[in-house]
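Notebook p. 47: complex prediction with adenosine-5'-diphosphate-glucose.
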Amino acid sequence: MKVLSVASEIYPLIKTGGLADVAGALPLAMGHHGVEMRSLIPGYPAVMKKVGKTKKVATIPSLFGVKANVLFVVHEGLELYVLDAPAFFQREGGPYTDALGKDHTDNWKRFAALSLTAAEIAAGLIPAWKPDLVHAHDWQAGLVPVYMRYGRAPETPSVITVHNIAFQGQFSPAIFPELALPPEAYSVDGIEYYGDVGYLKGGLQMAHAITTVSPTYAREIHQGEFGMGLEGLIRARASHASGIVNGIDTAVWNPLTDPMLASSFSAKQLTKRAANREAVMRHFGLDGDGPIFCVISRLTWQKGMDLLAEAAGDIVAQGGMLAILGSGDRALEGGLVQAASWHKGRIGVHIGYDEPLSHVMQAGSDAILIPSRFEPCGLTQLYALRYGCVPVVARTGGLADTVIDANEAALSAGVATGFQFSTITADGLRQALARVFEVWRDPDTWRQLQKNGMKSDVSWDKSAAAYAALYARLVSKGN
Ligand SMILES: Nc1ncnc2c1ncn2[C@@H]1O[C@H](COP(=O)(O)OP(=O)(O)O[C@H]2O[C@H](CO)[C@@H](O)[C@H](O)[C@H]2O)[C@@H](O)[C@H]1O
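Predicted complex, structure tokens below:
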């Protein structure tokens, strides 16, 4: 079966968050399930530079008024169609923002262009490779099912995956006439969304199936608190929606072979984590001998980083250390930097994005803190499990589905892998930290937690099989 995946970022070419990891790992995992998955991605400068020599497979003379080519290349096992439309994608800055971090004002057009190209590929733009199904990710690809339904591929099944329903791609209705859609598309059954145009809304309405990245989040978004305005639509389409938990690329994230580590290790040689611990301490200027808690995150309200700032002093008071890597909200960044200046040698902050450092932190820290208010799946707890770094997580979304809390029952059954807390407040986090310190003081139990985590199946195997079954069902139905 041929499946076209459409995403606005893909590891290892361009990444701002977890979407890239999933978009980069899923195609490789699907290969083991008889699915030939190719990915359509925008030709940002970083992508064009890294892929090197490409082959032109299609030309679109006027894509919203600009000339575009579709290029094909195989990069690190990924079969890629790159949308080379310099007017849209050859820009300074990130995939969505300019060099100053401001959203491009024409993002609606840039990602409509990506989506329309995907629909054209579904309709046969590249005769040698016509997909049996198209899988769109997040709002940036939200219009893919819309263009397919209203265009020339209404029969080809489509799936949309929601990685975070908080990001919806909501734009002024003034853009509608420029989207090259028929007038009836601007309706409650189409892309109209509270008087605006909603890209994710349109995708959720039109896709043949909806998935999100964990079973718990799939249930949570039925409620207003989590659905963020889309809960009614999610409920109406519940019979077409499901949750499939993310896996991770266990070849990239392998503590035995990871070239980014100071020292490789396995569950049998946990003492070899020590060199990584030293590297973390050096990088963050830490000098204690208690447990190291790490945070690798966007520094935002979603991720509970204000709660972390409130509870940081408690970690130090109990003899722990804290290493924070992230960027995001300026006020939250400032609060954490200030905590570090108050607790020199105990709290270290690195504002920025650093992939190799994130690997070393997972390999050298004792625990990772993830106090998210909501978390569709979460990947850092999965990397942590694999690297013997014990996850301490809020009980929400995929965090609830992937970490087994170290309560008495789970500890005595020998299955606990981390700590969960359900009151997602600074006090809830403090209480969890008290439990963490208690177990930390018992090295045998702590080691057992690490080993259980390292044994957990965080690979794509099961989830790729679930996607393969979903694709097969949709394709065999005729849609
Ligand atoms: N400063 C930094 N330096 C280096 N690496 C950093 C970093 N900050 C974050 N990262 C990395 O970026 C990724 C973030 O993954 P998350 O699962 O937290 O996803 P995110 O919230 O971006 O995406 C959404 O999509 C994913 C994928 O479906 C869901 O898991 C998640 O719940 C949802 O919110 C991880 O690989 C992490 O290591």
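Notes: The chain has a mean pLDDT of 97. The chain has two domains: 2-247+461-478, 270-455.
Next step: compare against the earlier run before touching the bench.
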